[in-house]
Specification:
By secondary structure, the protein is of the alpha/beta class. It is built from eight helices and seven strands. It has a domain of 183 residues: Ribonuclease H-like superfamily/Ribonuclease H (Nucleotidyltransferase, domain 5, 2-Layer Sandwich). The chain is 32% helix and 13% strand. Strand 2 and strand 3 form a beta hairpin.
Length: 278
């Protein structure tokens, strides 16, 4: 039996080229997954998954990697993704779980749960940077996927905007750290506030810089935060708990955190898929 030729999608083919190539090969519903907050030392880790419509209905003006957009542009693109996506889901992992389970384990669990929560079942999954085990559909880990695939870029925007909104809320509860400005990332201002005030309940005590000023050798306090009611809505403001929301059903889902880490599997400069033409 002859092996079908491969399809090569070049990085200069545009943000929609990879999804279009997959759809031409019969994978109509392509989901992208990404996260926000891996590098922050305070606040939650947020993952999102998005399935965009095929063709022009799935093209969103100004869509790009969330890190390349201004805050105002991210908000606009976020709202358009929510309005036009076939399905989307957002999962929020609080800092206490990141400390307890580890960053990479939580990252994989959050992306897996976001993908599982999509009301439109994906036929192919694209993830940013490293693969996600436990999916019952084929997938591809794409290096800098949020700059290569539209669905991954859309997921990055939902994750980033959701997390930024949470950090603005936390700034009111924990003043003096500047969460509304730096969103929990390590900046000179944040480091100075940590030294002056010590960490708060929303810091990640497993991070070296937080542990260094906590005096607890990386061990978080027994009581980390007040219990908040309700669930955080990625399309607006609200209390924050681990959850996911899908575009169609609007249901919430818990987060499984008993996963094992997997090393990153980056893809080279040209993304190659089986089953197409060279």
């Amino acid at each position: 039996m002859l092996t079908p030729p491969r399809t090569v999608v070049r990085r200069d083919g545009g943000l929609y080229a990879l999804e279009r190539a997959l759809q031409r090969r019969g994978f109509r519903h392509v989901a992208g997954a990404d996260e926000a907050g891996r590098g922050a030392c305070a606040g939650p880790l947020v993952a999102a998954a998005v399935v965009l419509p095929e063709g022009r209905r799935g093209e969103i003006d100004g869509l790009a990697d969330s890190k390349l957009l201004t805050p105002a542009s991210r908000e606009r693109v976020h709202d358009e993704v929510v309005a036009r996506a076939l399905a989307y889901a957002v999962v929020v992992i609080p800092a206490v779980e990141v400390d307890a389970r580890g960053l990479h384990v939580c990252n994989l669990a959050a992306m897996r749960r976001a993908l599982a929560s999509l009301t439109t079942r994906p036929e192919y999954v694209l993830t940013d940077g490293f693969g996600v085990d436990g999916l019952d559909v084929p997938g591809l880990a794409v290096w800098k996927g949020d700059r290569v695939a539209a669905c991954v870029a859309a997921a990055s925007v939902l994750a980033k905007v959701t997390r930024d909104r949470i950090m603005v809320e936390l700034d009111a509860s924990f003043p003096g750290y500047g969460f509304a400005e730096h969103k929990g990332y390590i900046t000179p201002e944040h480091s100075a506030a940590l030294r002056a005030q010590g960490p708060c309940a929303e810091h990640r005590f497993s991070y070296v810089n937080v542990a260094a000023v906590s005096g607890r050798d990386g061990r978080p306090p027994r009581s980390r935060r007040p219990v908040l009611g309700g669930a955080h809505d990625p399309a607006g403001a609200g209390a924050y708990q681990p959850m996911a929301r899908s575009a169609a059903a609007g249901s919430t889902v818990g987060v499984a955190l008993d996963e094992q880490p997997r090393p990153p599997v980056p893809v080279g400069e040209d993304v190659v898929m089986e089953g197409g033409e060279r």
